[in-house]
Amino acid sequence: MRVGLEGLPQLMHEHDEVQKQLELYDEHSEQHEHDRESFENTYYEVLGWSTAITIKLPALTGNITEFRHFQGTFTSLVINNDSLDNIQEHQHLL
């Protein structure tokens, strides 16, 4: 099943409704609770990927005297940001 980002809240709602019914009527509720937790973890992980992290960096103009300011800001906001992976760090250079 393919769902665009705009369809995620509806998907979560539908999944929640089905899970409630399964947990209510099926005696294997532990497995359903595990399934719910697994789905919700994946949902929030995907949702986190979709949220763009906006970091305002100074523009590089080619002026060597401005580079140290850029380098310090980039290091502080991007390199030392533990919430960014290597690919995200690289994208901030583009």
From TrEMBL:
Protein name: Uncharacterized protein
